Amino acid sequence: MPEVRPKKHLGQHFLTDKRIAQRITDSLLANGCDTVLEVGPGMGVLTFGLFERFGSKLKAVEVDAESVGYIRRNLPELNLIEADFLKIDLRGLSMGKFAVIGNLPYNISSQIFFRIIENRDFIPEVVAMVQREVAQRIAEKPGSRTYGILSVLLQAFYDIEYLFTVSEGCFTPPPKVKSAVIRLKRNSTKDLGCSYVMFERVVKAAFNQRRKTLRNSIRSAFSGIELSETYGTKRAEQLSVADFVGLTLEIQRLIR
């Protein structure tokens, strides 16, 4: 494996600790996956180990031209796609069922997870390194102040595991916050039993005014709606995924 040469732009902190890189690649099981897709390989600290494990099953998508050039010079056998993960047509890549892995840029990690939700029926597993607070939020259970929109939307379709914390010294340049690695494995839910578009709208409305009771936060988003006592007196962080499905069904009935 070539020596990693971290860059100091794009607002990204590059992992340089090879032991942590090995732990991350080992965390990906990829059972039943036709393809493994690495998001943002950068200088390849995960890529070379992934290629040793998965060979031609591995693809990578990278938007930065310098990183693309580096990977192509040092690992020309890799199927590397020069594109923005947030804009690329993932289904058009003909990858079958694919696992996603990556050290995700802090500033777009939430957007990447929303794309994963959109393509959930094709993505059985995700292993991602993100800011620790984001990882904790995604894995959090109802009742916590950190439980939020991503917690509900991801847990609706994935079982979440917080795997381990990564210290600031494992990166160049060192970030001001700790990172963490999480694993998402697709659960058995195919259909929530309500409109997913409405479900997402309800979840976002509830948490956008999370200090208010649902009676007030939902009324702000859906004018004229008067919730039952079952939901109206509660706050967003008190509801499980199943509760949000029930809330969505109630709202769907009320707006007909």
Would you kindly provide a brief summary of this structure?
The protein is of the alpha/beta class and 256 residues long. Helix content is 36%, strand content 19%.
Write up this protein.
It is a single chain. With 256 residues, the protein is an alpha/beta fold. It has 2 domains: 14-186, Rossmann fold (3-Layer(aba) Sandwich), CATH 3.40.50.150; 196-254, Helicase, Ruva Protein, domain 3 (Orthogonal Bundle). It is 36% helix and 19% strand. The protein is built from 10 helices and 9 strands. It has helices at 18-27, 47-54, 65-74, 109-118, 132-139, 149-155, 196-208, 214-221, 229-232, 241-254; strands at 14-15, 35-39, 58-62, 79-82, 98-103, 125-131, 158-166, 171-172, 179-186. A 7-stranded mixed β-sheet has the order 4-3-2-5-6-9-7. It has a two-stranded antiparallel ribbon with strand order 1-8. Strand 3, helix 3 and strand 4 (79-82) form a beta-alpha-beta unit. It is elongated and about 60 Å long. Residues 6-10 have low confidence and may be disordered.
* CATH level-1 class of the largest domain: Alpha Beta
**CATH homologous group name of the largest domain:** Vaccinia Virus protein VP39
Proper CATH architecture of the largest domain: 3-Layer(aba) Sandwich
Q: Quote the distance from N terminus to C terminus.
A: 60 Å
Radius of gyration: 20 Å
Mean pLDDT: 93
* Structural class estimated from helices and strands: alpha/beta
The share of residues in extended strands comes to: 15-25%
* Major sheet characteristics: 7 strands, mixed
Q: What is the H/E order?
A: EHEHEHEEHEHHEEEHHHH
- Major sheet strand order: 4-3-2-5-6-9-7
CATH topology of the largest domain: Rossmann fold
Poorly predicted sequence stretches spanning 5 or more consecutive residues: 6-10
Shape: elongated
Number of helical stretches of at least 4 residues: 10
Number of strands: 9
How many distinct folded domains? 2
> What is the percent of helical residues?
25-40%
